[in-house]
Amino acid sequence: VGAGLDSAVRYPLPRCHPATRRTLRGRIAGWLADRSTNLLWLYGPAGVGKSAIAQTVAEDCRKEGWLGAAFFFSR
């Protein structure tokens, strides 16, 4: 199906540029560290970068050894 984190079906992978969205990524990292909330809902209109944020955070989690699973939809 090709829904994995680095599936060839999804190339080029959507990613945040290194110096962008740091505040939001920091908030998500804080959510990851806080075990009291089990769900984070990332939402917004089409084209605002939800997939890029999710991809970048999943890659960051993989680097830290925190990634349990990742699943992406692609048109």
Q: What structural class do you assign from the helix and strand content?
A: mainly alpha
Instruction: State the shape.
Output: globular
Which regions are unreliable across 5 or more consecutive residues at pLDDT < 50? none
Helix content estimate: 25-40%
List keywords for this structure.
75 residues; mainly alpha; 2 helices; 36% helix; NPHP3-like_N; P-loop_NTPase
Description:
This protein is mostly helical and 75 residues long. The chain has one domain. It contains two helices and no strands. The longest helix is centred in the C-terminal third of the chain and has 15 residues. The chain is globular. The mean pLDDT is 83. It comes from Macrolepiota fuliginosa MF-IS2. Keywords: Repeat. This is Nephrocystin 3-like N-terminal domain-containing protein. InterPro entries: NPHP3-like_N, P-loop_NTPase.
